[in-house]
């Protein structure tokens, strides 16, 4: 693994779902530089601040997990052990619990940071060997509402769009997406497109006046959570002004009559009142969207991380179907993935609610297909859906799940309601954490720590937001005794063969990364995401490719549904008559502020990588709670005051910052700051765990809180 001497390795950035291509310079086993790959179709050589600093973060071994560690007794500190001892203990612990309590007493919590091949192996181990669907992922927090809505509206998951649409759109509607921070290279592509085509319109829907909103032609600063009302009000205007595409609706969709009836009473005036914006602004947005030859929507966590996230996605998709703004250049509903391989996890079915290649757990034929492909008895694949992320940690706290194996994720920082997450991990009989970094909020609670190789050190693939599969390549060997995630999974499987599941080892006999990818591709044959024409060799010779790319095809498909035939049983897209509902937790006299959360431009997730680089703190050096100046004045608060932010679940202390970018009555905190920087796990001490009942995605972007000044003794 990795190369010696001076060399340059073509790979993909490990941060966001943009999926930028990079060229990694290395010399004698050390990464010495990273530049944008001018040939990669996601970025054509561009990189953002995080990408530009990849070499610096990779060059540092500080904080890396270098060797396996284990607690000698339940509450003793972990000690260094050999790989065999650590792997034997994981396998023995899982086997013992499965023997006593059944396969659903264990769980796997994985990550959109895993490569597709690693994801595939984890999913195969959980569903094909252990026989539980209790495998979920931190991508549940990121895009599961988009997945559910695509399936409901189009019959299959996956965006119908591609990045080339950024240059071809006439109207771009950003919904709950601060592209300037979350997907900076895509914003740069749009900026360049607008410079060349000044008639392009940007509409930004966001309660905050973000850096993206500042650049918009129209900023709709809606009240948090009112997106469905806004979209329904826009649709009302489009219908009654004759801006809908009657021919498209008639030929390619169903359910429009019911939707039309439902939005009849959602007038722009009424919708604007709910949203707290001017009626004329709502109408302007509808007019631009409806009149433009090509309208593109870019959306992200602002829609998805909601107790009504699926409905918000569906209401936006309704606008596209009603105007025929889909399946043509520059048009379509384009959900952006947060993590580098959230899309790859969807493809391999690495979630509690789905099977591989967009198959369904409750479909016996689908279970039989997957079982046959893996060579396990059909009854090994459970028909019982697994527990999605929030329910998984609830079950851990209640003792129904007794062992959890966490890979490449930091749930003790990133899940909502952290006091309960910590209690769950403390109660578990066995917590295994597999990570490249030794000192996270979650590794602190691990009984066994397995050191994993990370970006720049391992081989595989990732899929970005536009369904493009790119190679990730090893430029250097991993430090210490770290091993690739796939190697660790297959080692456990081999041990479970001895302890519990005869035949398990043969399922993991060939764990060469290219072979695992071939196995994954073959399982997609005949499915909507068919990539049976792909292999590492094809990617190496032809470069990154979009799915679908079936055997015999020369290249992947840039746009889906161009012929108006959807993946539903009758080929028609479905409208959904969804009504506005307020966020799950309303403000009250005790908790009068709406807490919003989001990203910083130069930090990533729990800062395991970016938090080690001083240059990435220049943009925002300190954590803070932002508050509108009028709210601060009413409470006699000033910038720099220490404030306690409390919800019904927990509390934390942050310095106050004054911001005119927020509407009154709301406060904002970045999600990144964690136990390494604070005397708490971060803002999720206070966030709330209510999930969307269709996608099971939690409402991380809205909680009711109070804010009080604290005095230092
Ligand atoms: Fe990496 Fe995303 Fe920045 Fe591209 S936009 S360089 S993928 S963090």
Automatic annotation (TrEMBL):
Keyword entries, A-Z: 4Fe-4S, Iron, Iron-sulfur, Metal-binding, Molybdenum, Nitrate assimilation, Oxidoreductase
Example of a GO cellular component annotation carried by this entry: oxidoreductase complex
Coiled-coil positions: none
Keyword Nucleotide-binding found: no
Cofactor(s) the protein requires to work: Mo-bis(molybdopterin guanine dinucleotide); [4Fe-4S] cluster
GO molecular function terms noted in the UniProt entry: 4 iron, 4 sulfur cluster binding; metal ion binding; molybdopterin cofactor binding; oxidoreductase activity
Entry's EC annotation: 1.7.99.4
Domain 4Fe-4S Mo/W bis-MGD-type: 6-62
Single GO BP term: cellular respiration
Family label: Belongs to the prokaryotic molybdopterin-containing oxidoreductase family. NasA/NapA/NarB subfamily.
Protein name from the UniProt record: Assimilatory nitrate reductase large subunit
Residue numbers of the full-length protein present here: 1 to 713 of 905
């Amino acid at each position: 693994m990795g190369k010696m001497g001076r060399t340059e390795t073509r790979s993909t950035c490990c941060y966001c779902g943009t999926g930028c291509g990079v060229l990694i310079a290395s010399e004698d086993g050390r990464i010495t530089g990273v530049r944008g790959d001018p040939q990669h179709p996601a970025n054509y050589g561009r990189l953002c601040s995080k990408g530009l600093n990849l070499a610096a973060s990779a060059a540092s071994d500080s904080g890396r997990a270098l060797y396996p560690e284990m607690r000698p007794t339940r509450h003793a500190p972990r000690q260094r052990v050999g790989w065999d001892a650590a792997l034997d203990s994981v396998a023995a612990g899982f086997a013992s619990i499965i023997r006593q309590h059944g396969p659903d007493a264990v769980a796997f919590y994985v990550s959109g940071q895993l490569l597709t091949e690693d994801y595939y192996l984890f999913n195969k181990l959980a569903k094909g060997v252990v026989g539980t669907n209790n495998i979920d992922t931190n991508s549940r927090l990121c895009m599961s509402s988009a997945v559910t809505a695509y399936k409901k509206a189009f019959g299959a998951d996956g965006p119908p769009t591609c990045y080339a649409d950024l240059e071809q759109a006439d109207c771009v509607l950003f919904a709950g997406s601060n592209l300037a921070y979350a997907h900076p290279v895509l914003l740069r592509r749009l900026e360049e497109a607008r410079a060349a085509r000044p008639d392009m319109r940007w509409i930004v829907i966001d309660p905050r006046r973000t850096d993206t909103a500042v650049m918009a032609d129209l900023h709709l600063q809606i009240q948090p959570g009112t997106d469905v009302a806004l979209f329904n009000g826009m649709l009302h205007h489009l219908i009654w002004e004759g801006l809908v595409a009657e021919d498209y609706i008639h030929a390619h969709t169903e359910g429009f009559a019911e939707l039309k009836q439902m939005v009849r009473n959602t007038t722009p005036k009424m919708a604007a009142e709910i949203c707290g914006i001017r009626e004329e602004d709502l109408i302007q947005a509808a007019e631009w969207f409806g009149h433009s030859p090509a309208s593109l929507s870019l959306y992200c966590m602002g829609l998805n991380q909601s107790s009504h996230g699926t409905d918000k996605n569906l209401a936006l998709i309704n606008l596209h179907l009603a105007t025929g703004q889909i399946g043509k250049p520059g048009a379509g509903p384009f959900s952006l993935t947060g993590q580098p391989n959230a899309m790859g996890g969807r493809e391999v079915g690495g979630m509690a609610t789905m099977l591989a290649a967009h198959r369904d757990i409750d479909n016996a034929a689908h279970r039989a297909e997957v079982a046959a492909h893996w060579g396990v008895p059909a009854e090994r694949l459970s028909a019982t859906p697994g527990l999605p992320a929030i329910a998984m940690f609830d079950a851990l706290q209640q003792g129904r799940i007794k062992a959890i194996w966490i890979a490449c994720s930091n749930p003790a920082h990133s899940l909502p309601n952290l006091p309960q997450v910590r209690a769950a991990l403390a109660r578990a009989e066995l917590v295994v954490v597999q990570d490249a970094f030794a000192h996270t909020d979650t590794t602190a609670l691990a009984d066994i720590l397995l050191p994993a190789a990370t970006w720049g050190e391992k081989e595989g693939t990732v899929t970005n937001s536009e369904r493009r599969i790119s190679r990730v390549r090893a430029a250097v060997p991993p430090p210490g005794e770290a091993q690739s995630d796939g190697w660790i999974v297959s080692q456990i499987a081999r041990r479970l063969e001895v302890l519990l599941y005869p035949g398990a080892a043969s399922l993991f006999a060939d764990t060469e990364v290219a072979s695992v990818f071939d196995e994954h591709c073959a399982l997609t044959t005949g499915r909507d995401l068919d990539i049976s024409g792909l292999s590492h060799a094809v990617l190496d010779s032809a470069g990154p490719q979009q799915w679908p790319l079936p055997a015999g095809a020369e290249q992947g498909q840039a746009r889906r549904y161009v012929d108006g035939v959807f993946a539903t049983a009758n080929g028609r897209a479905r409208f959904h008559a969804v009504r506005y509902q307020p966020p799950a937790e309303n403000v009250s006299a005790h908790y009068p502020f709406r807490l919003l959360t989001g990203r910083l431009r130069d930090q990533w997730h729990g800062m395991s990588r970016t938090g080690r680089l001083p240059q990435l703190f220049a943009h925002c050096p300190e954590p803070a709670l932002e508050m509108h100046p009028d709210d601060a004045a009413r409470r006699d608060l000033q910038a720099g005051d220490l404030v306690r932010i409390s919800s019904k679940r927990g509390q934390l202390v942050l310095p106050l910052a004054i911001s005119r970018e927020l509407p009154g009555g709301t406060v904002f905190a970045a999600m990144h700051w964690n136990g390494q920087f604070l005397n708490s796990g971060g803002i999720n001490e206070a966030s709330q765990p209510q999930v969307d009942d269709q996608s099971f995605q939690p409402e991380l972007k809205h909680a009711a809180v109070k804010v009080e000044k604290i005095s230092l003794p």
